[in-house]
Amino acid sequence: MKNFIFGLFFGLTVAFVHAAPKHVHGEARLEISLDREQLVVALESPLDSLLGFEHAPRNAAERQALQVMAAKLKQASQIFVPSAAAQCVSTGVELDSPVLGGKAEPGGHNDLDARYTWRCAKPEALRDIATGLFAEFPKLRRIAVEFAGPQGQRAGRLDAASPRFSW
Ligand SMILES: [Zn+2]
């Protein structure tokens, strides 16, 4: 009985860890929320998946790579494509990372957070969002998605073969 309880506890712990990966290279997390006309997509990714390194840039080539990454991510229409019928218009992209501010901890792991917002004229027609992240950033393998909207909550996973999340 004691072994059974230990096994059960261990199993639950492992399941929990797998359900909520914090910083795994090649993986990112996406939170999609729809509130009336406002669509918000929040991306959290290890910098390694987008940039190939996670330290503050040390030379001209790394500074250039950082700028290229930021410029790609700011092209909202390339990175996320909401259902055309919903008539969503991008209202902003915000990028946040210790590396962008030159404050990366030496030897540490660092993330990039990005927040995309749209205003959708017909939010009831919003049924899916496709992402160009896999095409732009080949080191990114998987994205865990959580969705919250009028239809309730959903979760799913995206990869290069299925880059569209539907609800
Ligand atoms: Zn890392």
Query: What's the number of helices?
Result: 5
Mean pLDDT: 89
What value does the Rg take, in angstroms? Answer: 18 Å
Low-pLDDT stretches are 8-20
Structural class: alpha+beta
Helix content: 25-40%
Ligand inventory reads: zinc ion
Largest sheet: 6 strands, mixed
What's the order of the H and E elements?
A: HEEHHHEEEEHEEE
What shape does the CA trace take?
elongated
What does this structure look like?
The chain has one domain. β7 and β8 form a beta hairpin. About 8% of the residues have low confidence. It is α+β, with helices and mostly antiparallel strands and 167 residues long. The chain contains five helices and nine strands, in the order αββαααββββαβββ. The longest helix is centred in the first third of the chain and has 18 residues. It has a six-stranded mixed β-sheet with strand order 4-5-2-1-7-8. The protein starts with a helix and ends with a strand. The protein is elongated.
